[in-house]
Amino acid sequence: MATIKDVAEKAGVTVTTVSRVLNNRGYISEETREKVYRVMREMQYQPNEIARSLSRKKTMILGMIIPTIAHPFFAELTNYIEKHASKLGYKILLCNSRMDQGKEKEYIDMLTSNRVDGMFMSSHTLEVDEYKKLKQPIITFDRRIADIPYVSSENEQGGIYAAELLLKKGCRRIAHITGNLGLDLLSNQRTNGFVKSLRGRGVEPIVFELGPDVFDSEGYERVITELLEQYPDIDGIFASGDILAMNVIKVCMSKGIDIPGRIKLIGYDDIEMASLVSPALTTIRQPLEEIAKRAVQLLDGLIRGEEVQHDNVLPVTLVERSTT
User: Fold this and answer.
1) 245 in a domain, yes or no?
2) How many domains, in total, are found in the chain?
3) What is the CATH number of the domain that holds 14?
4) What does the pLDDT read at residue 273?
5) What is the pTM assigned to this prediction?
6) 124 shares a domain with 100
7) What is the pLDDT of residues 249-297, one digit of tens each?
């Protein structure tokens, strides 16, 4: 069985350098880091994780609680989180809450008892006090909770971009389909920006909210069908997520409604599928990898005992494709 000394000799570095790579301590060039990892793979070297955890009083495991891994947005976010956490030597323990308060609480208890070094929270069903009681470092997505640092995109600006484009395209009977506006989420600022921008131009939008489970595709189709039947003269729709917008395309196709001929459509997120559907989806792009990278850097900083920035809001961009 290969030892740390064997790895150091084959990689042409010192044992201290290999140790620093394993423990992510001190400055190590990317070239040296990659070389050490390559040699470890070639020699099938397995560090003693229990001993390492005891020596540095860290597990190098991060918990991540998301609403549903089945949703492409959270699948992509998790992929990027794992990618950038792995570069710093962390492993990810993924928890799928399905927006269930009981499950979210159970997962938080599980992560705490397993002594994860920190948590990413992207499922927000619990009350603020539940998060404030936690001792582990936490980073949240799209929710501002007390003094917990968060990462978000310019949600309100995204709503403004969507409103301006639909108006530019000549739309005047405009609808917005969004999640539960009763939840205290920064993503609901998309609605604020969209509605405020339209009203400033003398256009009153039609706002339709989804039910309690905002990730239920069957619920999407029901709400979209209801919207189109109640307001058959709609000529523009802004959906608060790309998957929701893709369901608009599906329902409209089933009803013979042409997009973008009769209805212009805009989504939000710019997940990979947005450019693959037909017609390709116009959307507001969140810089998803940059959001994930920033979140990992922030959590790593908290774990190290550093002061980190509380508000982390990244810019969005309009990506125009065939639905407008």
Assistant:
1) yes
2) 3
3) 1.10.260.40
4) 95
5) 0.81
6) yes
7) 999 999 999 999 999 999 999 999 999 999 999 999 999 999 999 999 9
Q: Can you spell out the DSSP letters for 63-94?
A: EEEES-TTSHHHHHHHHHHHHHHHHTT-EEEE
pLDDT over 60 (residue 51): no
Same domain, 128 and 186: no
**DSSP strands (E only) in the chain:** 61-66, 91-96, 118-121, 138-141, 150-153, 174-178, 206-209, 236-239, 264-269, 282-285, 311-314, 317-319
Alpha-carbon gap, residue 42 to 34, rounded angstroms: 12
Q: What would the DSSP string read from start to end of 96-144?
A: E-TT-HHHHHHHHHHHHHTT-SEEEE----S-HHHHHT--S-EEEES--
Angle at 181 between CA 205 and CA 136, to 5 degrees: 145
What value does the CA radius of gyration of the chain take, rounded to a whole number of Å? 23
Burial of 285 (0-12, 13-18, 19+ CB in 10 A): buried
Tokens of residue 115, six digits: 């002594």
The pairs formed by 8-11 with CB atoms below 8 angstroms and a separation of 24 or more are 10/39, 10/42, 10/43, 11/35, 11/36, 11/39
